[in-house]
Specification:
118 residues; mainly beta; four-stranded antiparallel sheet; 0% helix; globular
């Protein structure tokens, strides 16, 4: 199992940027797919983006395409989410997740709050 710790959240004005980081423990990090999810108040957790083990394949939910970029540094056991052109509707707790090869995301971080003011 991979242990995950997110950081980088905060308060930003609409149109601004933030970069989230997710530090992972464990020597198997480089074999895991990684993802970002978010949960806004009163809503269910939703998928945001994912990246495969090597970093050469990414996928985004439609609402963040062109604004968010997921990346990873396997040497540092870290995955990132660069968020640009932020909107108030991006306000949520953002969670990092890890999934072993061939399996669903099964390890989760504690979350980091992102608040976008209008």
């Amino acid at each position: 199992q991979v242990q995950l710790v997110e950081s980088g959240g905060g308060l930003v004005q609409a149109g601004g940027s933030l970069r989230l980081s997710c530090a992972a423990s464990g020597r198997t990090f480089s074999s895991y797919a990684m993802g970002w999810f978010r949960q806004a108040p009163g809503k269910e957790r939703e998928f945001v983006a994912q990246i495969n083990w090597s970093g050469d394949s990414t996928y985004y939910t439609d609402s963040v395409k062109g604004r968010f970029t997921i990346s990873r540094d396997n040497a540092k056991n870290t995955v990132y989410l660069q968020m640009n052109s932020l909107k108030p509707e991006d306000t949520a707790v953002y969670y990092c997740a890890a999934g072993p090869p061939g399996h669903a995301f099964g390890s989760w971080g504690q979350g980091t709050q992102v608040t976008v003011s209008s």
